[in-house]
Amino acid sequence: MSRSLNKIMLIGNIGNDPEIRATASGARVAKLSMATNRTWSDRSGQQQEKTEWHRLTFFGRVVDVVEQYVKKGDRLFVEGRIEYSQTQDDQGGTRYWTDIVVNEMVMLGSTGGSGQYDGAGGSEGGGASSEPPSMEPIDDLPF
Questions:
Q1: For 43, which DSSP code?
Q2: Which residue from 32, 76, 91, 101 lies 20 to 30 Å from 112 (Cα-Cα)?
Q3: What is the C-alpha to C-alpha distance for residues 83 and 6, in angstroms, rounded to an integer?
Q4: pTM for the full model?
Q5: Which domain holds residue 83?
Q6: What confidence score (pLDDT) does residue 87 get?
Q7: Is residue 123 part of a domain?
């Protein structure tokens, strides 16, 4: 059997306060969006910027930490895996989702507190969206 890897690391700003829900089995889930951005100069020398939005999903004990300390605008480092899912909308169309299921989180300059949490688990999808917060270039990486 060959090995494979599904791992993603992001540093960005949180776009909405966490949405806390329960699955059919009663497990708590936290969902929120994260914005990452990049800047570059195009061929004419003009500065360009692009913001990407990522849907984050948390399971397990980390849900309590997210609910208590993470707020819109906070800066986080997250590590997890990518999961793809699809659902049917009310009109019968198919909607496709890409989620980052977080298994490690480090709070970077948040207003609610700071620290690290390692230990989310689970594998369920779903989603939320948000309006973009004001973004600043990422130039203070912690590593």
A1: T
A2: 101
A3: 9
A4: 0.70
A5: 8-118
A6: 87
A7: no
**Residue 62 burial by Cβ neighbours in a 10 Å radius (0-12, 13-18, 19+):** buried
Instruction: Write down the pLDDT at residue 109.
Output: 76
Q: At CA 76, angle to CA 14 and CA 110, rounded to 5?
A: 80
DSSP string over 49-89: EEEEEEEEEEETTHHHHHHHH--TT-EEEEEEEEEEEEEE-
Q: Which amino acid is at 137?
A: P
Residues 6+ apart with CB under 8 A from 136: none
What pLDDT, in 10s, does the model give residues 9-39?
Answer: 999 999 999 999 998 899 999 999 999 999 9
pLDDT digits (tens, 9 = 90+) for 88-130: 889 999 999 899 999 999 999 755 444 444 444 333 333 333 3
End-to-end CA distance of the chain: 34
The verdict on residue 91 lying in a domain is yes
CA 52 to chain centre: 11
Total domains, the chain: 1
